[in-house]
Design a protein that fits this description.
Organism: Sinorhizobium meliloti CCNWSX0020
Number of helices: 13
Family: Belongs to the peptidase S9A family.
Helix content: 10-25%
GO molecular function: serine-type endopeptidase activity
Oligomer: single chain
Protein name: Oligopeptidase B
CATH architecture of one domain: 3-Layer(aba) Sandwich
Pfam families: Peptidase_S9, Peptidase_S9_N
Radius of gyration: 25 Å
Number of strands: 37
Largest sheet: 8 strands, mixed
Strand content: 25-35%
Length: 702
C-alpha cells in the first residue's frame, strides 16, 4: 500500500527518438533531447539552458514537492536535530608550520569555513592572537552557490592561493591573497582545478587548467603580478584519458606533476632550484603500473604495485636518479595487506594500510628499520592520517572514530609512542555511545565471497524483521566507505532504523582484489553483493525486504539503478543521488566530461564490442523495463560535470513510462548546484533532511 496519496499527474517527458548504431547494434533513446546542445557553455552560465528543458526540470521539481509536501514539518525537525549535533562555532586544532599554526573555524550560523593562523606556540583558543586569513561567509555573500577549494600558503608565509567555484560546475577561479593585509592582489586565474603549488620564494606557483571537457590537461607557471595570458605552459597531457595534478614536497625541493587514470601513473619532477627546467620523467606510464611519490631527503619513497605487488609495496630511489631501474624495496608486498598511502619525515616512514578489513597506521624508524603499528580494538572503526606540515618532526596527527564513537584527534610522537588527545568531537545535543550497537557482519555472496556489512542501531531496536533499514552502498573506483562516526544518521537510528553500510566489491575494503572483482567485466559483482547484503539482513531479521530503503550516490547511484532493475521486490524505496545511470550512452561519448578517463573503470564500448555488450547488460537506463519499481527519489545538479543532470532526468522519464507499480518516481534537480549538492554546511543538512524524510515516509514511520 503506497504511502503517497492524492498526487497530481506526474510530468510526462515528450518522446523524441534518437537512434545510435554501434558494432551492428541499434539503440533508440526517446529522451536524449534532455541533454542541452550547449551543455558546456551552460555549465558556466546556467541561465542559457534551453527553455523546454528548464520547464521540464521545473515541472519535475513541482511534482516532487507535491509528493513530499506532507514531510515539510518532518524535514524541519530532522534539520534541527542534525544541526543540534553540530558545534556551530567549532574550530580545528591548528597545524604547526614554521612560525605559525594554521587552522579552520566556523562561526555560529555560518555556512562556510574561516581560514586562520596563530603564532606557532600560541594557545589555539586565544581569539586575541587569531588572524582570519579568509572568511568564507563574507566571500559567499549574494551567491546562490559558493564553494572554497582551500587556502594554500606560501613557504615564506607571506601569501596564499585560494580558489572558489560559484556555479557548482567545478571550474575554479584562483586568487592570490596578501596574508599580512588580508587583501587580494590583482592576479585572477580562470578555469582552474582549484589549487596550486608554490615555488619556495613565494613569487610564483604552478596550477592546472581544465579544458572544455573538464579535464585538467595543462600545467601552467604563474608569476605574481602578471596576467594569466602570460603564464608559461609547463606541460600539456595529450591523452584525453589522463588527469593531472600538481603539488610540492615538504622540503620545497621539487614540484610534482602527477599524471594518472584509474590504473596507470606517471610522475614528472621540476627541481625548485630551476623552475624553468623541463619536467623530468620518473617512470614512463605502463598500463597497469601505479605509483606515487614522497620525498625523504636524499631518497624518494615510492608506493607502487610494480612486479605484481597487487596490494602495493614501498620502494626507495635516490633523489638524483629516481628512475624505475633504481627502485629498491623497503616495505615488501604482503598479499591481503593493502597499503593505502605513505608519508616520509626526517626520521620516520609512515603508511596507512588495511588488514582484515580494518585500517592501521604503521611507523618505521628510518635509522633502525624497527616498525610498530597504531590500531584499535573495536569491531569496526575508521582511521584518518593527516601527518604533519613539516619534514623535520617526530609528531604526526591522526583521527579515530567508529559508528558509535565521536571523532577523536590525536598528536602522536613517533619516537616515544605517546598519544596526546587534542580534541573529541562535541555533540551539543548529547550522545551516549552506550545507547547504540555497532557490528560488522558478513553476507554470503552469490559466488561464496563474504561481503562485510557495518551496522548501527539502538540497543532497544527489535531485531525481529520489523525495523526499517537504510542500506547504503557505493562500490567503485576502489573507494572504501569508512565505518566512521556520522551524527546525521542518528536521526534515522533514533527512529528505530538499522543503518547499514554494505562494503561491496568495487571498493578496496578487503584488499585490491576486492576492487578488481567489481570493475570492468566483473562489474555486476557490485550489484549482486549489495543484493546479498539485503538478503542477509532480511534472513537474519535485522530488517525485512518490506522495510529496506537503499541509498547510493554518483557511481553508487548506478548501483541503485541496477538493483532497481535486478531486484525491485527487495526494496521498499530507493534514493539515488546524482546517479550515474546512463552508463552506455556516456561511455560511448568521448566529448563528455571525464568519459575517456573512465574507460579503465568500466571498459571502452566505442572500440570493444565485448564491453559494449557488458555495459549494455547492466546500464540502468538501458535495462529499465515493465516491472513494479519501488518508490524512487533521484537527485541531480544542473551544473554537475561528473554526472550530468540529464542522466537522472532521462532515467526518471523512462522509469515512469515503464513501471507497472503504483509507487511514485520522483526527480529533484538542484538548479543552483553541481555534483556535491549545496555548498554550505547547513544547506547540505537541509538536503540530507529531505532524503531522510523520504526514507522515513516510504518506510511508513512518519
Amino acid at each position: 500500500m503506497s504511502v503517497f496519496k492524492n498526487l497530481p499527474a506526474a510530468p510526462v517527458a515528450p518522446k523524441k527518438p534518437v537512434t545510435d548504431t554501434r558494432h551492428g547494434m541499434t539503440r533508440t533513446d526517446d529522451y536524449a533531447w534532455l541533454r542541452a546542445e550547449n551543455w558546456q557553455a551552460m555549465f558556466k552560465d546556467p541561465s542559457i539552458l534551453d527553455p523546454e528543458i528548464r520547464r521540464h526540470l521545473e515541472a519535475e521539481n513541482t511534482y516532487m514537492n507535491a509528493a513530499m509536501a506532507d514531510t515539510k514539518d518532518l524535514q524541519k525537525t530532522l534539520f534541527a536535530e542534525m544541526r543540534g549535533r553540530i558545534k556551530e562555532d567549532d574550530s580545528s586544532v591548528p597545524m604547526k608550520d614554521g612560525p605559525f599554526a594554521y587552522g579552520t573555524s566556523y562561526v555560529t550560523g555560518g555556512e562556510h569555513p574561516r581560514y586562520f593562523r596563530i603564532p606557532r606556540e600560541g594557545a589555539a583558543g586565544d581569539e586575541t592572537i587569531r588572524r582570519v586569513l579568509l572568511d568564507g561567509d563574507r566571500e559567499a555573500e549574494g551567491k546562490a552557490y559558493f564553494r572554497i577549494a582551500g587556502l594554500d600558503h606560501s613557504s615564506d608565509h607571506s601569501r596564499g592561493i585560494w580558489g572558489y567555484d560559484d556555479k557548482g560546475s567545478e571550474y575554479f577561479t584562483l586568487k592570490v591573497r596578501d596574508l599580512s593585509t588580508g587583501e587580494d592582489l590583482e592576479d585572477l586565474l580562470e578555469n582552474t582545478g582549484g589549487g596550486g603549488a608554490w615555488a619556495p620564494d613565494g613569487k610564483s606557483f604552478f596550477y592546472t587548467v581544465l579544458d572544455e571537457n573538464h579535464r585538467p590537461s595543462k600545467i601552467f607557471h604563474h608569476v605574481i603580478g602578471t596576467p594569466q595570458s602570460e603564464d608559461r605552459l609547463v606541460y600539456e597531457e595529450p591523452d584525453a584519458g589522463f588527469f593531472m595534478s600538481v603539488g610540492g614536497s615538504l622540503l620545497d625541493d621539487f614540484i610534482y606533476i602527477d599524471i594518472h587514470d584509474h590504473e596507470t601513473s606517471e610522475y614528472r619532477l621540476i627541481p625548485t632550484r630551476d623552475l624553468a627546467a623541463e619536467p623530468r620523467i620518473v617512470a614512463v606510464r605502463v598500463t597497469g603500473l601505479e605509483y606515487s611519490m614522497t620525498e625523504g631527503g636524499d631518497v624518494f619513497y615510492i608506493l607502487t604495485n610494480a612486479d605484481g605487488a597487487k596490494d602495493f609495496k614501498i620502494m626507495e630511489a635516490p633523489v638524483e636518479a629516481p628512475q624505475k631501474e633504481n627502485w629498491r624495496e623497503v616495505v615488501p608486498h604482503k598479499p591481503g595487506t593493502l597499503i593505502l598511502s605513505h608519508m616520509a619525515y626526517a626520521r620516520h616512514l609512515v603508511w596507512l594500510q588495511r588488514r582484515n578489513g580494518l585500517p592501521e597506521i604503521v611507523i618505521r624508524d628510518r635509522r633502525t628499520g624497527e616498525e610498530h603499528a597504531i590500531a584499535f580494538a573495536e569491531e569496526a572503526y575508521s582511521l584518518g592520517l593527516s601527518g604533519a606540515a613539516e619534514y623535520d618532526t617526530d609528531i604526526i596527527r591522526f583521527s579515530y572514530s567508529s559508528m558509535t564513537t565521536p571523532s577523536q584527534l590525536f598528536d602522536y610522537d613517533m619516537q616515544t609512542r605517546k598519544r596526546t588527545l587534542l580534541k573529541t568531537q562535541e555533540v551539543p545535543s548529547g550522545h551516549d555511545p552506550d545507547d547504540y550497537v555497532t557490528r560488522r557482519v558478513f553476507a554470503p555472496a552469490h559466488d561464496g565471497e563474504q561481503v562485510p556489512v557495518t551496522l548501527l542501531y539502538r540497543k532497544d531496536t527489535p531485531l525481529d524483521g520489523s525495523a526499517p533499514c537504510l542500506l547504503y552502498g557505493y562500490g567503485a573506483y576502489g573507494i572504501t566507505i569508512p565505518a566512521s562516526f556520522n551524527t546525521n544518521c542518528l536521526s534515522l537510528v533514533d527512529r528505530g532504523f538499522v543503518y547499514a553500510i554494505a562494503h561491496i566489491r568495487g571498493g578496496k575494503d578487503k584488499g585490491f582484489h576486492w576492487y578488481e572483482d567489481g570493475k570492468m567485466a566483473k562489474k555486476t559483482n557490485t550489484f549482486k553483493d549489495f543484493i546479498a547484503a539485503a538478503d542477509y539482513l532480511n534472513q537474519e531479521k535485522f530488517t525485512s525486504y518490506a522495510n529496506i530503503v537503499a541509498e547510493g550516490g554518483s557511481a553508487g547511484g548506478m548501483l541503485m539503478g541496477a538493483i532497481a532493475n535486478m531486484a525491485p521486490e527487495k526494496f521498499r524505496g530507493i534514493i539515488a543521488a546524482v546517479p550515474f545511470v546512463d552508463v552506455l550512452s556516456t561511455m560511448l561519448d568521448d566529448t563528455l566530461p571525464l568519459t575517456p578517463p573512465e574507460w579503465p573503470e568500466w571498459g571502452n564500448p566505442i572500440d570493444s564490442p565485448e564491453f559494449y555488450d557488458i555495459i549494455a547488460s547492466y546500464s540502468p537506463y538501458d535495462n529499465v523495463g515493465a516491472r513494479p519499481y519501488p518508490a524512487i527519489l533521484a537527485l541531480g545538479g544542473l551544473t554537475d560535470p561528473r554526472v550530468t543532470y540529464w542522466e537522472p532526468a532521462k532515467w526518471v522519464a523512462k522509469l515512469r513510462e515503464e513501471t507497472t507499480g503504483s509507487e511514485p518516481i520522483l526527480l529533484k534537480t538542484n538548479m543552483d548546484a553541481g555534483h556535491g549538492g549545496a555548498s554550505g554546511r547547513f544547506q547540505r543538512l537541509e538536503e540530507i533532511a529531505f532524503e531522510y524524510a523520504f526514507a522515513i515516509k516510504v518506510a511508513g514511520r512518519m
